[in-house]
Design brief:
globular; 323 residues; eight-stranded mixed beta sheet; alpha/beta
């Protein structure tokens, strides 16, 4: 009898170990697919599953955006970890600035050309950086907002060195929204005035966990423990640490939160959590649209009315654009 009990315990132990090895292997696969710039699985299969795409069927609109992009002045900076990041600057005689930040596995042009055109038409200078691991910027690992927050601090400093009287808005979409909100928790110059955050998640951990619930049948809690451990080794920080809500606890800038009610990639409930987390003034609009950061495409008039009215409530970043 004792021999049988020992045998059963050994078999169960082997099964548990085998299960952990299996989960650990898939946890590594998942993290790599999420954060590696040149990940084979994502490039071949994952993009169609996770990336909502950005292409518009409006060819005239695409051409107008492409023509506008010809006005860009290329800016670059070098990060402390020796990556060269590139941004597109659209300059005019104004002390008002917008830094427009794109989404996951996209580029400044793909996600933010319409945003840049709007603000430029309103008299703002606009800087559209490609985040590390995206577009024309270097980097093999996607920062998921956490690494990008410090890069954005550098872009802000670059603007302030050029124009000490600059008044700066941050406008981010999706990953870009998470990045600007994470940036708000850092020590920023008084030049930064407002934040517009369209479709942000609350943390990298919560977003990964939600996607796993949606697309897999893994035991998610155990899986995320292994994924978090691997991410800490691979990226130098844990998924839990990369928290938008925690950074917002140190934010005192006014924030406009925007979201699509039927967002398939970042649940709209995330914005409710962010509203409670921020220490600054806040406003929120949920658009009755389906898709991820689609409100500015599907309801552009309403979208920009909301944004412009929010900005107009703060006179020091709305008046005297041409001084």
């Amino acid at each position: 009898m004792i021999k049988w009990l020992i045998l059963i315990v050994l078999v169960l132990g082997i099964m548990v170990i085998a299960g952990l090895v299996y989960l650990n292997r898939w946890a590594k696969f998942f993290v790599n697919a999420a954060v590696e710039r040149e990940n084979d699985w994502f490039l071949q299969d994952g993009a169609g599953l996770l990336n909502p795409g950005w292409e518009s069927s409006d060819e005239l609109k695409q051409q107008a955006q492409a023509d506008f992009w010809l006005l860009e002045k290329t800016w670059q900076l070098e990060t402390p970890d020796r990556l060269k990041l590139t941004g597109a600057a659209f300059l005019q005689e104004s002390r008002q600035w917008v830094i427009a930040v794109h989404g996951y596995r996209s580029t400044g042009f793909q996600d933010m050309a319409d945003v840049a055109m709007h603000y430029y038409g309103q008299g703002y200078n606009v800087l559209v950086p490609d985040l590390r691991g995206h577009g024309r910027s270097e980097g093999k690992i996607i920062g998921m907002g956490w690494l990008d927050r410090l890069d954005l601090v550098q872009w802000i400093q670059m603007i302030c060195e050029r124009d000490p009287a600059a008044e700066i808005l941050l406008h981010g979409c999706s990953l870009g929204a998470a990045a600007v909100l994470m940036t708000s928790g850092e020590k920023l110059p008084d030049n930064v005035k407002l934040i517009i955050a369209d479709s942000s998640y609350t943390s990298v951990y919560s977003e990964f966990k939600w996607l796993l619930h949606k697309y897999t049948k893994y035991p998610v809690n155990r899986f995320m423990v292994l994924a978090n451990r691997y991410a800490r080794r691979k990226m130098g920080y844990s998924l839990i640490r990369a928290s938008v809500t925690r950074q917002l606890g140190s934010n005192h800038l006014p924030v406009l939160f925007l979201h699509d009610r039927e967002d398939p990639l970042v649940p709209v409930a995330e914005t409710g959590t962010l509203l409670e987390a921020t220490a600054g003034e806040k406003s929120c609009v949920i658009f009755e649209t389906a898709g991820h950061m689609q409100a500015k495409t599907l309801q552009p008039d309403r979208y920009w009315q909301v944004v412009d009215e929010f900005i107009s409530g703060y006179g020091d970043v709305n008046n005297d654009k041409n001084e």
